Target: Exodeoxyribonuclease III
Amino acid sequence: MRIATYNVNGISSRLPALLQWLQEKQPDVACLQELKAPQEKFPEAAIKDVGYEAIWHGQKSWNGVAILARGTTPVEVGRGLAGDPEDAQSRYIEATVNGVLIAGLYLPNGNPAPGPKFDYKLAWMERLIIRAADLIESGQKVVLAGDFNVIPTELDAYKPERWVNDALFRPETREAFGRLMGQGWRDALRTMHPDQTIYTFWDYFRNAYGRDAGLRIDHLLLSPSLAPALKAAGVDRDVRGWDKPSDHAPTWIELDL
Model:
């Protein structure tokens, strides 16, 4: 079973690249982030034409998450995180696909930090940690997949010294991510490539992709009951070099279930 996560950075403008990737790689599940489209503007028909059923949580101009499944319909479990009834941002969705619970997320960026956006990021992470603990406790086979907007270690950033004051790399962010991982989650990409410099995001500016000046901020975390099934993990790096690409590349895992 191949599960991927892909921040598309606007599904309307990136649709040709998304459809090409789905047809070429044929992941069984694809978690999408940053749809930047209201609920009614999601391109359901085009995605269905290439063999995928979808559930999505849209939002006009910003955010938005979706879960796509090849040849089957994701069974929605819920959307949004508990703990803040005033939070209207579309950043979290859960569904089951072929016996695996998929949690697709788009964690807040948090910049500028410090400030209200950073406070929101940290509060959102606390809500995620609570939900993740419940998922671990359930014993289910779970994947937390998405754009976490977290640089876990210096190995995950080109010239990490440039990121020390950024919300993605500040000590508070990494501390919260560390507590999440401390619940027992397995970082799939780092498990398979423990010492390799590997990125999932390259900025549009200063030829970042050409210089391989990237970040690893898209993660697939496996629950303890699912971690033994991990067989491979990687990044479809070439997709970042396609015409009119997202600034992220699809990141994937293969599970032997």
